[in-house]
Amino acid sequence: MKGVVLISGSGSNLQSIIDNASVIELNIEAVISNNSNAYGLQRAQKSNIPTHIIEHQSFASRAQFDQNLSQLIDQYTPEIIILAGFMRILTAEFTQKYAGKMLNIHPSLLPKFQGLNTHQRALDAGEKHHGASVHFVTSELDGGPIIAQSSVDILANDSAKSLAKRVLIEEHKLFPKVIHWYTQGRLTLNHHHATLDGQKL
Ligand code: GRF
User: Fold this and answer.
1) Is residue 114 part of a domain?
2) In a domain, 159, yes or no
3) pLDDT (tens digit, 9 = 90+) per residue, 27-53?
4) Does residue 124 belong to any structural domain of this protein?
5) Which residues contact 113 (CB under 8 A, 6 or more apart)?
6) Total domains, the chain
7) 11 alpha carbon to ligand 1 midpoint, in Å?
8) Angle made by CA atoms 119, 89, 201, in degrees to the nearest 5
């Protein structure tokens, strides 16, 4: 299945998707970053995947940025759009256009800790467990139907950094697994919830 991956940073999730691409039956047609310094661009180039930089600072409005991003994505006619550490809030027009085709990974056990600094916030809240979630993207930030989660125990001596490191290891397993469900046609978005093999998740 043809996919486009959107990134903003290091791209370690992108790397895990690249490394598993043949197993999960995904052809990564392009990697698009809103940040020209994203290390993930180099990861894509090393794997001969076309890259694009589309800097949001160059656009007068969020809507204009999203329209241009959408035109770029559509050139590749992807069946799946993967947000792998893409740190931009998307307009409702954009998320509606790709409803049911766009997945995001978020570093928390949603619905807990939507938004930024999730690891520190989980520590500050005295949580016993933390983790990552993959969800369908809707207009609600980090609020779309959850597909799957992976959790880790929070240890007494954890810092945000040590916790982030363990959560990332989980992310690298979780995201390719969920993407594979999608490429196999097992995963759908139905009336505000996700289904796997026809069963509500
Ligand atoms: C990950 O923790 C992801 O869940 C979050 O941003 C981080 C991106 O890491 N949205 P990377 O760029 O994949 O290394």
Assistant:
1) no
2) no
3) 999 999 999 999 999 999 999 999 999
4) no
5) 121, 122
6) 1
7) 7
8) 65
CA atoms within 13 A on the CB side of 71: 6
CATH number at residue 93: 3.40.50.170
Assess if residue 67 is contained within a domain.
Answer: yes
CA distance 7 to 153: 27
Q: Give nearest CA residue, ligand 1 atom 8.
A: 85
Active site residue 180: no
pLDDT (tens digit per residue) in 188-200: 999 889 999 999 9
Question: Do residues 38 and 10 touch, judged by C-beta distance below 8 A?
Answer: yes
Range of the domain at 175: 2-105+130-151+171-200
Q: Whose C-alpha lies nearest to ligand 1, atom 14?
A: 12
Q: Quote the pTM value.
A: 0.97
Q: Is 49 left (phi over 0), alpha (psi -120 to 50) or beta?
A: beta
